[in-house]
Request: fold
Amino acid sequence: MRKKIIAGNWKMNNTVSEAVKLVSSLTKKIEKNPPSSTGVIICPPATALASVAPLLKGTPIEMGAQNIFWEEGGAYTGEVSAKMVKNAGAKYTLVAHSERRTYFKESPTVINKKIKLALANKLKVIHCIGETLEEREQKLTKDIVLNQVEWDLKDLTPQDLKNVIIAYEPVWAIGTGKVATPEQAQEVHGFIREILDAIFEPGTGKKMTLLYGGSMKPDNAAGLLAQPDIDGGLIGGACLKADDFMKLIKASEAASK
Ligand code: PEP
Reply:
């Protein structure tokens, strides 16, 4: 059975001291209500990784980076490598968040390189996919996610895929307060499982963890998490408040029963 996961993407929020404060508050809440069937991941900004890591020791919370560069290292001013975030304590990295596709024009080739490099550095990957509003209105959602899965994950082996989580995040729902209905999200998640079987090998789809992301909040999480093909959430805005993030963990626990 696939375990549920609640992952928080802090984006470009929180200084080191703010990060320490938020994590301290979250770990206290989690100590009181340790989840039994939900994995918890937080993705602070790169500057806070090394300070947050020691606070997570002995807790069920794992840490991810938000981004890595596509080369191992060298003359790439301003970039952060897979090895650096791993050494700072990250176990995961997000790859291909829609904000990176949009603002940094990350192409399938770049995304594929990043995913392979993360895996080679023993970082698990949370790979984000999803269509824009325009694409949904043109009924292109399935074509878009098919292309993203096919090209971003090109040449990955079944062993590689054990370390990849896919987050379906319709771009029109990210940070907008417009959440996909549980039915809309379920339809795409079910389709992703089908294409994983077709692109890789039969049985791949049901093994992989698929998260929904896009304005998931404590008051709309239950319906989404109750869907058979939704294994949890990638949370932006609502992960910046320990209370709300804890409510989402509880919603996931309730949905796992
Ligand atoms: C995200 O950034 O991945 C996200 C889902 O953001 P929000 O929850 O704020 O829509």
Summary: The domain at 4-231+245-256 is CATH 3.20.20.70 (TIM Barrel). The chain has twelve helices and eight strands. The chain has a mean pLDDT of 97.
